[in-house]
Amino acid sequence: MIRVTCAIIRNEDNEILIVQRGENTDHPLKWEFPGGKINEGESEEECIIREIQEELSMDIVICSRMENVDYDYGIKEISLIPFVCDTLDDLPVLSEHLDFKWLAPSVLIEADFSEADVIVAHNYLNAQPYDDEVKVSSSGSDVNLADDEDLRSMVISMMGMKNAEWVATSAIDNPAVFKKMLEYSYSEDKKLAFHASWILTKVCDKYPDIIYPYLPGIVEMLKKIDNESAQRSFLRIISMSEISKISVRHHGLLADHCFAELKSGFSAIAIKAYSMEILYKLAVIYPELVNELSATINLLQGEGSAGIIARGRAVMKKLAEISGNKNSGRSSSL
Predict the structure, then answer these.
(1) CB atoms near residue 138 (< 10 Å)
(2) Cis before residue 129, ω within 30 degrees of 0?
(3) For the chain, which domains are there?
(4) pLDDT tens digits for 241-269?
(5) Burial 19-29 (b: 16+ CB within 10 A, else e)
(6) Hey, which of 130, 152, 169, 270 has its CA 20 to 30 A from 291?
(7) Three-class SS of residue 242?
(8) Mean pLDDT in residue range 59-65
(9) Residue 320 belongs to what H/E stretch?
């Protein structure tokens, strides 16, 4: 029997990601939960994290493991090992699949799934909403937030959106916890930095003004952060902030960094998307950036990602409005 992992990936709107198989596969054009075979010497958890990175270039947090689904397809027997996961990413990069969808739980079973995935979908829906309630009740009840070792351990072992929101609420109420999340976000421990920066995004979603005293420092650190997960969290925070509140010098640093990410062949799609939004905000302040940003977005149209192409078209429309009005006011300069 072939052991295969799969991920039920939820976004911030509690929608679930499904992907469509290719025409020349065992189950042509069927929809499934992404995942793959376990390699020799690899744990189930290591497998699903690796598979989602390789197939979709997405960061996930494993929330729970569901019951295995054993299924005989005739040509093969599989043991499907499902994990419930959360993510901040909404733009998967398809390397093996034809298409993707984010579906509300209410319509999940309407998808044309492969047979084993049908069972996984039903099992997941039947288990809701109890899992999240149990996790939240035990997420931080015995954690001493003033103890660095306790706090660090809790952030590393964080399981899902609900736990992130619990810590985020603590960070809002306690400035020391907020500063610790910022410190951890710069850590060389990639898992700690990923989880801490994710928590910061939840804090800023609720109270965006809390980040402004720290925004210049974050901008200055961007080029030193080699953790892609933390990088995308910080860019997401900046893209949702009023960047007019930081200095002209920091605008210049931010523009240089975001243009470099857009032009890089190695940047993740989410990083490019957030960089594009940030550069649009800068172009509103500095209309002379419009032509360079438009040219850069045009180059991205050949990358093949439907998500980045759609984002690019939306930004291009907004840039056209700036171009039409740029002679009516005085522009600043970086």
Answers:
(1) 10
(2) yes
(3) 2-128 (3.90.79.10), 141-325 (1.25.10.10)
(4) 999 999 999 999 999 999 999 999 888 88
(5) bbbeeeeebee
(6) 270
(7) coil
(8) 90
(9) helix 306-325
